[in-house]
Hints:
Blueprint: H1 6-25, E1 28-35, H2 39-55, E2 59-66, H3 68-81, E3 87-91, H4 94-101, H5 109-114, H6 123-127, E4 130-131, E5 134-135, E6 137-142, E7 146-150, H7 151-156, H8 165-177, E8 181-184, H9 192-205, H10 207-214, H11 223-237, H12 250-258, E9 262-267, E10 282-285, E11 298-299, E12 302-306, H13 315-325, H14 327-333, E13 340-341, H15 352-363, E14 367-368, H16 377-380, H17 383-393, H18 396-411
Parallel strand pairs: 1-2, 1-3, 8-9, 11-14
Antiparallel strand pairs: 3-12, 4-5, 6-12, 6-13, 7-9, 7-10
Amino acid sequence: MPRVTNSIVRLAISALALLLSTSISAKQHIQIATLINNGKHRTVLHQLERLFEQRHPDVELDFVMYSTHEYEAAVPLWLEQGDGPDLMFWYGGQRVDHFAKQGQLKDISDFWKEHKLIEQYPQALIDSVSYEQGIYAIPVSSLYSGLYYNTKVFEKYQIKPPTTWQETLDSCKILRKNNVDLFNLGSKTAWLTHGWFDYINLRVNGLTFHRELLSGKISFTDPRVKDSLSHWKELLVNQCFNANHQAYDKLQAFPRMVHGFSAMTMADSTSHNLPQAKLRDIDVVEFPQIKEGIPNYTLAPIDVFIVPAYINMTAEMEDLLLYIANDEFQQALNPTIQRLSARIDNMQYDSLLQRKSAEIMASSPGGIQFFDRDTDIEFAQHTPAIFVEFLIHQDIEKTSKELETLRLEVFGPITDQ
């Protein structure tokens, strides 16, 4: 048998290398940028990554994971320079609107229509990824921010969770006589005050007004804003909140309600490292109606995935978006980050509280995410301090003027459309 020459071996190796290179290059590489919460979150993402690649051997996924501060600074830079990851984790609401308005996101409305996704998400969540006539993201996770309450406290004093403003004031007076707070607040976590202003203004002035206000299109000295602040003041005057709210942060406040020192608290989950036995008497309810005719809009922070405008929508990318929109992906991901899946069909819940929260969101005619996410970040980072001070001095004129001064600094004068 003739000896194989070195040159022939080298040719064979080169041919094999070329073949392998061609095979590898035939795969579409898709890089996904995301925040990471914990080790379980990371593990599940890698499992979901491998599952997709098994089903789509022509695609190679690469999850690139970041911490909060570096990530939130990187996303605007990637979108502005038109160069970065192929798919990005982000926040719904104004954070999507901002980039969609600048033409930096891909309009995926046709994708939504083709796969009938509109039928699979609550309207409030669809609103959070829509801008004008387009849809610009895939909702993945959600949190319902509502009023959690201790059923035993209400049973003890023979009252029911309030559904109207008058019932709220009446309940407050009954509980205060018994040295119990109707509402528990931990304003040491100052941004929690945003939720109170959000809900009161939504119930007093409606969704359209609240969105325009947070967009800087309405003055905070507007009588309608002062009307909302006057309702908030009514709760303060009637001592509906715990007097020592500044001594508690978000995590410390929730247990006070669980142990019966307060009847209710505004929160986005019960994940406060409390044993399930302690939570057996806890339920969740919508924020009470203030003015008749205004629907019960919700606060529901939404996490989404966005497609940058600089990316071509290939068949492989559409397969990935459909995978992320699927309940299989969302049900695997969300328990690791203590979130609800964004979809409303085929849902699975860790608790009855989660089920009820999802039902409230599904029945809502719309809503916002949260003050922080639905206004300019330069505005939102200063408003908590103003609201915390309002809880103390209760001066409506002072608060509205301070908010308006800040609005002018961030958004500028209001111009006629």
